[in-house]
Amino acid sequence: MANAITPILLPKWGMDMAEGKIGDWLVSEGEQVTPGSEILEIESEKVTNVLETTATGVLRRQLVNHGETHPVGTLLGVIADANVSDDNLSEFISGYEIKEEALLDVASPALELIDDIAEIDGRKLHYTSAGTDGNTVVLIHGFGGNLSSWGGLQMALASSYRVVSVELPGHGTSSKQIDGGTSLDFARLLLAFLDELKIGEVSLVGHSFGGSIAAQMAKIESSRIKSLTLISNYGLGTKVDINYVDEFLAASRRKGVKLALKKLFVDGTTISSDMIESVLRLKRIEGADQALRIIADKIRDEQPKKASVDLPSVPTQIIIGKADEIIEFDDSLFDNIDNVALIEDAAHMPQLEKAAQIETLIKEFLEQHQEYETLQA
Q1: pLDDT digit string, tens, across residues 201-223
Q2: pLDDT digits (tens, 9 = 90+) for 115-139
Q3: Rounded to two decimals, what is the model's pTM?
Q4: What's the number of domains the chain is made of?
Q5: What is the largest CA-CA distance in the chain?
Q6: 86 and 142: one domain?
Q7: What's the CA gap between 286 and 292, in Å, rounded?
Q8: Residues 6+ positions from 149 with CB-CB distance below 8 Å
Q9: 121, 124, 184, 312: least surrounded by Cβ within 10 Å?
Q10: Same domain flag for 24 and 92
């Protein structure tokens, strides 16, 4: 009977997530759910996200309430077949609560996380690495981003790959020294970063400006880049709204930061107080503002007169939120691109707004490419 009952646990969406604040239940007790159903809003230190179920059944019990804060691994509710009795449900819940080892497994995944600094030509790059598989995936954030821009994607992919996430110069806690500041300059630096970590072939996942950097890396060393996943990217088929860049640079107080961040999401409630404070804290680091302004000027210079497609010669998938107001794209530009996903109810940060869907798209693309390589070998 226990196999007919599925626990709903508070997930670990970020490497430093220890607890979550309960938002609104999106499904009522007694409602039928299927894999992918959005059932509950949860606010972590980094972002408010929606928990999706992987089970089919009926939401039988809600065990937590709006506004409560609980640690990662907490039993939030249960999904079960309609024929499971209330007594069996109660027995399952009471038994689950005393299985401390199960909670520890969720709160502390059995994945080693390396949090370190690499020095490249006098510049220190903050990075994290998780997973031990021989295939390596590198995450490259966008303008104004940092390690938290990926939510729980790094740890989710790390169950199958070695995943490295790096903070670009001028961002996060990396050096604020900028040499050049173009996407090509950053591409060369990150290739040197891979050399420093003794990483050979990689698959790249780039968000926004990070996608343009990833594409440049593929053009420089196409034999080294196994595949590209470009999320909300402005360089291939799109161009960026410079007004947003200016608003982000000008924002020095909570209100301004919140207004700028709202443009990144479909739902403004996704933006937590901790997210705003984190952005302000990183922007106020000495040298950060000047570095970001240098990069912004280069982004202006690199803008095409119109959106265009110029794909590198490596397998590429493009992911764009249909409600994205930061980038400009034309559906007709993608007629000759096989791997394009337009994400419903997502804006410029689909990896946070539709985390499960983006994780699936990336995993399936990487697995598909791996299978192709195996057949070719």
Answers
A1: 999 999 999 999 999 999 999 99
A2: 899 999 899 999 999 887 678 999 9
A3: 0.72
A4: 2
A5: 67
A6: no
A7: 12
A8: 141, 142, 207, 349, 351, 352
A9: 121
A10: yes
